């Protein structure tokens, strides 16, 4: 079988070596398409592939149409909003993700960005500390739980809200469970977003919620840009000169957000899962899931059921 790794944002070299070992040990062939700049390159590379490993690469109807032999596509990572799941199903392709494999990397970046934000982006002026501050975690999945773990090391007060995670699970992790998103934003100095991009969450983070942050509040997004209502947030930042917005996913309105110098920061390219460890974990997990699918028909992590 031919396994294609198609990554516009490539894995660390060690991750590709690990994927190659897993794939070739079972007698399959690895094909690499890294740093491609044109969708046509993906459409041509996928023609021969029986399986494909991707990151945030968009796999839509056109890609599935070109992928005549494709049986399985694995998103090496958590969020699979880049795969057209209906198209996968109608083309009889199994779509999977690798939950939890890169969550520590994303959680660590949250604190890298937060320390920078509370120290005024290292401009030489006196900042504040994270210790004793109230951190709100919106969605208590794999990343949210790692954020809670690290926040305790900073001696922060940790709160969380998750529509789907029972409160007793949140409380068992030593975290205050909020009853609503409103309660989370009202009661926390900093809110960190860990919600996926779904029809329910798209544009759900706007002035109604963020405007409830207390004076000096910080919104940090390491999830998806689509969850932010950019128009409302731009207006809010103009009216509330105490608020900061820090993001690992550059908003469409980056140029307008940049007007709020000293209160806005975006990484140039999504960096959350961009560590050797996360790439190795997620990439090798993806390769192993493909092998188990070919060997035993295992579809444990299928997301297009
Ligand atoms: C994920 O959903 O796993 C993260 O957002 C990482 O995405 P990336 O592989 O594009 O860095």
From TrEMBL:
It is an enzyme of class 1 (oxidoreductase). Keywords: NAD, Oxidoreductase. InterPro entries: D-isomer_2_OHA_DH_cat_dom, D-isomer_DH_CS1, D-isomer_DH_NAD-bd, NAD(P)-bd_dom_sf. Residues 123-250 form the D-isomer specific 2-hydroxyacid dehydrogenase NAD-binding domain. Residues 21-304 form the D-isomer specific 2-hydroxyacid dehydrogenase catalytic domain. Its EC number is 1.1.1.290. It comes from the Bacteria. Gene3D superfamilies: NAD(P)-binding Rossmann-like Domain. SUPFAM superfamilies: Formate/glycerate dehydrogenase catalytic domain-like (SSF52283), NAD(P)-binding Rossmann-fold domains (SSF51735). It holds the Pfam family 2-Hacid_dh. One of its GO terms (molecular function) is 4-phosphoerythronate dehydrogenase activity. Belongs to the D-isomer specific 2-hydroxyacid dehydrogenase family. This is 4-phosphoerythronate dehydrogenase. The lineage of its organism: Bacteria, Pseudomonadati, Bacteroidota, Bacteroidia, Bacteroidales.
């Amino acid at each position: 079988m031919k396994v294609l790794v198609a990554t516009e944002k490539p894995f660390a070299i060690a991750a590709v070596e690990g994927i190659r070992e897993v794939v070739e040990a079972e007698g399959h062939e690895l094909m690499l398409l890294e740093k491609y700049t044109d969708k046509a390159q993906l459409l041509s590379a996928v023609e021969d592939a029986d399986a494909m490993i991707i990151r945030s690469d968009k796999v839509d109807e056109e890609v599935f149409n070109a992928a005549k032999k494709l049986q399985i596509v694995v998103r090496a990572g958590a969020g699979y909003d880049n795969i057209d799941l209906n198209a996968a199903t109608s083309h009889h392709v199994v779509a999977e993700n690798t939950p939890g494999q890169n969550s520590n990397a994303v959680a660590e970046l949250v604190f890298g960005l937060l320390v920078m934000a509370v120290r005024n982006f290292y401009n030489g002026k006196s900042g504040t500390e994270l210790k004793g501050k109230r951190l709100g975690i919106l969605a208590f999945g794999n990343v949210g739980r790692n954020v809670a773990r690290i926040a305790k090391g900073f001696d922060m007060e940790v709160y969380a809200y998750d529509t789907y995670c029972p409160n007793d699970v949140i409380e068992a992790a030593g975290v205050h469970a909020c009853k609503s998103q409103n309660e989370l934003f009202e009661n926390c100095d900093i809110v960190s977003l860990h919600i996926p991009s779904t029809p329910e969450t798209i544009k759900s983070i706007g002035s109604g919620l963020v405007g409830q942050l207390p004076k000096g509040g910080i919104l940090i997004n390491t999830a998806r840009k689509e969850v932010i209502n950019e128009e409302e947030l731009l207006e809010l930042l103009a009216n509330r000169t105490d608020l900061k917005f820090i993001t690992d996913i550059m908003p469409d309105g980056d140029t307008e957000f940049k007007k709020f110098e000293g209160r806005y920061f975006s990484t140039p390219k999504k960096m959350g899962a961009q560590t050797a460890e996360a790439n190795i974990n997620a990439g090798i997990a993806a390769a192993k899931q493909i092998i188990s699918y070919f060997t035993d028909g295992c579809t444990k992590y299928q997301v297009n059921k």
